[in-house]
Amino acid sequence: MRKAALLALVLAAVVRAQQPVAFTDAEVKRIVALGPWPPARVVDPSNRASGNAAAIALGERLFRDPSLSGPGTIACSNCHVPARAFADGLPRGQGIARGDRNTPSLLNVGGQRWYGWDGAQDSLWAQSLRPLLDTREMGSSLAKVASQVRAEPSLRAGYVAAFGREPPDDDQVVAVDAAKAVAAYLQTLVSPRSAFDDFRDALARGDREAASRYPVLAQRGLAIFIGSGNCTACHSGPRLSNGEFGDVGIPFFAEPGRVDPGRFGGIRSLQASPYNLLGAFNDDPTRSTATSTRFVALDHRNYGEFKVPSLRNVARTAPYMHDGSLATLREVVRHYSNLDLDRLHADGERILKPLDLDKYDVDALVAFLQTL
Amino acid sequence: MMRALASAAWLACGACAAQTCGERLAAPVHSTESPRYVVAYSTLPARIHVGGHFTVDFAICPRDGAPMPDSVRVDASMPAHRHGMNYRAGITPTGSGTWRAEGMLFHMAGHWEIAFDLVTGSTVERLTDGIDLD
After folding, report:
1. How many domains does chain A fold into?
2. Which of A121, A161, B118, B127 could form a disulfide with A54 if both were Cys (CB 3.0 to 4.6 A apart)?
3. Chain A contact for B87, CB < 8 A?
4. Closest approach of A234 to chain B, Cα-based (Å)
5. Is B8 a residue whose pLDDT tops 70?
6. Which residue from A minimizes the CA distance to B54?
7. Among candidates A231, A145, A213, which has minimal Cα distance to A182?
8. What residues of A are in contact with residue B103 (Cβ under 8 Å)?
9. Residues A171 and A316 in one domain
10. Other C-beta atoms within 10 Å of A22: how many?
11. Which domain holds residue A351?
């Protein structure tokens, strides 16, 4: 009798593992909303170098150039390693000193509303300038960046080609322009289509045969992702991120006794920055992309909130979370499965509940994430 | 009987106010009402998208002799999630009892509740309406 029951359980598990998921129309709609990919290329009106081929070439050169840094030894590409999906594989970034946060991938970095784990920057060019000036990252200065652009013949020629003039005497203007060239380059970093995109498109056009090529285990994981897991509440849209911030129960101590304020500090930095989109360095006189900056709200609940990361290429960007504290995708899924509600802020998202996944469900979610 | 008639008359008047309030707003116009006020509103774009800023144009129509409020605030929240927007709407009067709320953004799909706080002296009257986002 017990043997028969066990056999039935095993058979049920085998059937579950092999049978494609019959998604309902409502579920198909939710899946289709996670695309299409790639997104249409857009020009950033706040950056006059955006989409300019000469600026993109200059930006790529600057991205790989260690001479801009304070010690002259650290390039952007030291931490944003092209072969590692423009991340570094370390728990926390290592520039001149070890940072507090994980180095995010730069794939698909263009066109976002906020930049950085705390969203302290509202444009890709402001974000490109920040690590240059951060004493723990590249330790440079406006004067150092500007003098390097003026003095190095190929950089100077690149600047003239990109901006149509000689670098001016104002260090701040030259350094911001250099950051805008880097941003123009970074906007071109778009990840290729994934197995999930093929599945999503097949579902959208009702092509069952093409859809059946998507692994069944990943389909099961996707069903959890858009269903009982409610992951799409935050990981929504083609980027699989709503671009906003949340407290997901990861401790926010950067080290014992020192808190990383997360989004709270990010909004304060943003509002104090001369490089935000409301400032003089925005090239768009209409401030058409500055709405978020103008109306962003600073609340106490922002403490301990960090940006919802895109899940595209997530299998290539370990370790995970803002502090790099989870080494594998399996650990991330288990984090949400066993969520410690006591670690959430008292006013944290009520949407977060432990998912209580069994081993098969964990495997399925990991399999799904690996297809993104 | 008299009480029933009075109630029916009030309902008729309320429906009338809801129909005419905000007639100059762009369609489709939505409304929410209390015994003292009708707030009619429309959004730009008309269809709100998750993660996209939108504007709310609205009209406040006092009824039964209620005063026009001194000021108004517009906010929104997801009651089931216990959170609001990450943005604070900026309100500007646009004349003739109409206002514009800018900078609104719903960052999640699901049920949102938009709230109009009508401030008169030290009293605040809140009118709400539900908005469901796919």
Report:
1. 2
2. A161
3. yes
4. 7
5. no
6. A291
7. A145
8. 291-292, 294-295
9. no
10. 8
11. 19-38+193-250+304-369
Contact across the interface for A297 and B102, Cβ inside 8 Å: no
Q: Of A186, A216, A240, which one is at a domain's C-terminal end? A: A186
Question: Three-state SS for A13?
Answer: helix
Amino acid at A249: G
Q: What is the pLDDT of residues A325-367, one digit of tens each?
A: 999 999 999 999 998 877 776 555 567 889 999 999 999 999 9
Distance, in angstroms, between A349 CA and closest chain B CA? 6
CB contact under 8 A, B109 and A236: yes
Which stretch of A156-160, A334-338, B10-14 has the lowest confidence by average pLDDT? B10-14
Nearest CA in chain A to B107: A242
For residue A212, what are its two tokens? Answer: 């059946």
Are the beta carbons of A297 and B50 separated by less than 8 Å? no
pLDDT digits (tens, 9 = 90+) for A32-89: 999 999 999 999 999 999 999 999 999 999 999 999 999 999 999 999 999 999 999 9
Residue of chain B minimizing CA distance to A239: B51
**Residue A67 within any structural domain of the chain:** yes
Q: Which of A154, A169, A186 is the last residue of a domain?
A: A186
CA distance linking residue A121 with residue A125, whole number of Å: 9
- Could you tell me the two tokens for A308? 């919802």
The domains of chain B, with CATH numbers, are 2-133 (2.60.40.1930)
**Shortest distance, CA A231 to any CA of chain B (angstroms):** 11
- Residue A102 DSSP symbol: P
Q: CA–CA distance from B6 to each of A53, A321, A356 (Å)?
A: 73, 62, 56
Q: Is the Cβ of B47 closer than 8 Å to some Cβ of chain A? A: no
Residue of B nearest to A30 (CA): B134
